Amino acid sequence: MKAPIIVSTLLLSFFFFLLSPVWAAEEWTQIKHATSAVFKPGAVVFVDKNHAWAYQNLNNNKSHLKKMKGTSPTSWLDLRTFSFHIKTLIFKNTRVGFIAGDEGHLIRTVNGGSTWYPTNYKTTKSLNDIDIRGKNIWVVGHDNTIVYSPDNGKNWQEINPELSKKWIFTGVSFSSNKTGWITGYRYNKGARVIILYSRNGGRNWVVQTDNIKNMSKKFIPRNIHATEAGWAYIVGSKGSFLMTTDEGKTWKTALNWSMGEETTLHKISFPISRIGWISGDHGRVLRTNDAGFHWTLDPTPIRSCYSYCNLVDIHMFSPTSGYAFTSWGDVIKYAPK
């Protein structure tokens, strides 16, 4: 009778081992070390694990566009060199993508980035961010610029937000075809933030900046992420973090870490609704398991330094896998141990 008891005990022990946190734990590991000749991306865009694009801005007012070679984010193929600085890059699928940049450049590809065509929207104002939802595309930029296309970028129309002062819009994110936010800033004894909200597809905008609670309104927003639940998250300079759970009626900080005045938080990535990450300066990665109410600091192999180890981009495919990229060319991977 002892043998069945021993076997049952071993099976139970193995079962609990499989469910233990140690077995399921993930970690960040470095898979690419920067060198003087390495590709230094300004941003990296994934459509899926096998398709990604990235750009690097150069000192001579040019930019390189590259495509991921194979399935590894450490190898890139040259696609194009442009005679302007790229500000944002987005792909709707493996074929259709858009680039916006300095001096009003807004261009489109329908073959995965091999060739690019100018859109019929003309401006000289710098364009900083793009958001796509279905056939609807929004673009924002300098001097209160908001541009909208209802047909996959074939036609464009400017929208006047009716603001009394000129702002530099840095981010746009829609949670549905109707509801979305724009972030921006202007200099007034320091950088002062603005938050705009629309409930009618971007035709009209209301200012929500006065809804920020218990936090300085002087920072530069770098990234905004809106969800279909009417929630949104904003990160930026001075370690700034804001979130709303009521469509912007209140904006509050839930970041339980002091990042310091010299730290910028760059990108937000939520692979599922409750679990998300933020990448920032000095190799910092923050993680939440409760939709943003509390954050923990993930240990990363990126050394703490001033500028060349800043994690400017992060993309999480799931709660157990993703990549982050430094401005100097380092790549770190999140995966089970």
Describe this protein's structure.
It is a single chain. The protein is mainly beta. It has one domain: YVTN repeat-like/Quinoprotein amine dehydrogenase (Methylamine Dehydrogenase, Chain H), CATH 2.130.10. Helix content is about 5%, strand content about 45%. It contains 2 helices and 27 strands. The protein has helices at about 1-20, 20-25; strands spanning about 25-30, 45-50, 50-55, 65-70, 75-80, 85-90, 95-100, 105-110, 115-120, 125-135, 135-140, 145-150, 155-160, 170-175, 180-185, 190-200, 205, 220-225, 230-235, 240-245, 265-270, 275-280, 285-290, 295-300, 310-320, 320-325, 330-335.
State the gist of this model.
With 337 residues, the chain is mainly beta.
Beta fraction of the residues? 35-45%
> Largest beta sheet: what is the strand line-up?
1-27-26-25
What composes the largest sheet?
4 strands, antiparallel
CATH architecture assignment name: 7 Propeller
